[in-house]
Amino acid sequence: MKFAETVSDNAILRAFAGRRMLLACVSLLALSQVQRASAQIAFQDLDFESASVVPAKFGDNDDIKSGPALPGWTVYYGTTPQGTIEYNDPSVAGASVSLLSSSYRHGAPSGLIQGRYYVLLQEGLFGSSQPGDPPPWATASIAQTAQVPITATTMTFRASIAQLTVSLGGTVLPLDVLNSYQGYDIYQCDVSQFAGQTAQLEFTAGDPTVYLDDISFSSTPVLPAPEPASMGLFAIGGALLWWRRGVREKGR
Q1: What is the architecture, at CATH level 2, of domain 55-218?
Q2: In the chain, which stretches have pLDDT less than 50?
Q3: Which of 12, 237, 178, 250 has the alpha carbon at shortest distance from 20?
Q4: Among 4, 119, 165, 187, which is least packed, fewest CB within 10 Å?
């Protein structure tokens, strides 16, 4: 009788241990799913409308904290992360990222601005140098790592640029002009190869004045640009038709 009771107790203990192991496995699986989901955070503040203006120093409204000003984004001068940016106060010669409000009088063309806020990227002087050395120069950039929407085929944005590099996942994206306006353009990029992936999106200014706003992902396919050779053949064909028409008119 005691032997049977001992066997029964051992079976109960084994069953209890098995249940605990099962619960532990389920908990680990749930945790891994949560971690995976948290790693696949969607891009945020692509229109810069989530900005909170928090002065970096008491009484100084020109320098603001970069985190609240550009949620989700990291600001770099060269390769150095920055904890502060400018507010309605573009730089004269130094590398700078500025959050500008739509009420700022000396900002971007009005059609570029969408909503209350937009961003100005300015490459320029940054850091110190030894006597006799050339002044140090740095690009200005903003970057964010998140999951590209699984349905995304294109990314568009508004910018007034001379030199701007846009990269996703370390790959520089070719920029195609979707629409041109007075003082700015709407650009599109093909991002279909990154759909559903977690990647770093980075905008880097290679010019002292790069206004940027209204970044968005879309499922609308990119319209292919005409090949240069095709454009040349089309122009030659048009010229020939015009010449033949002129010859016919003279022969009448």
Answers
A1: Sandwich (2.60)
A2: 2-7, 12-13, 15-16, 22-39, 226, 228-250, 252
A3: 12
A4: 4
Phi, psi of 248, rounded to the nearest 5 degrees: -65, -40
Q: Contact at 8 Å (CB) between 41 and 146?
A: yes
Instruction: Count H helices and E strands in the chain, helices first.
Output: 3, 17
pTM of the predicted model as reported, rounded to 2 decimal places: 0.73
| 110-134 confidence digits (pLDDT tens) | 899 999 999 999 999 987 766 666 6
d(CA 128, CA 144): 27
Indicate the domain borders of the chain: 1-39, 55-218
Contact 149, 208 (CB under 8 A): no
Length of the chain: 252
Residues 231/232/238/242 CA torsion (nearest 10 deg): 150
